[in-house]
């Protein structure tokens, strides 16, 4: 036994509605997570985009890997709506993903509605304070 702390990638292996957001994180499935998250068919994953103000294709590698199982991708951009960079929009389109950028609050609400309708929805949610 090493006695050290083991740090694992944050992952909840299922689909769950987002119960709350703010204070730099999210609450779902009776748990809380500090930081941004990806809500995918494979579960909810901790997400650390290189620059939340300028998202890039590399930030969406896990999303693109699961694109075949996703009908719509909601992108919570933080407090304010911003356009996705053109190169990222094209990469998502090339993967067959329809992306819809919006504020994180709007993305959480829309994600919960589509999840309740059992739609093939995914969300990339930038945490807000």
From TrEMBL:
Pfam families to which the protein is assigned, alphabetical: DUF498
Name this polypeptide is given: Mth938-like domain-containing protein
CDD domains registered for this protein in UniProt: Mth938-like (cd00248)
Top-level taxonomic group: Bacteria
InterPro entries: MTH938-like_sf (IPR036748), NDUFAF3/AAMDC (IPR007523)
Transmembrane stretches, start-end: none
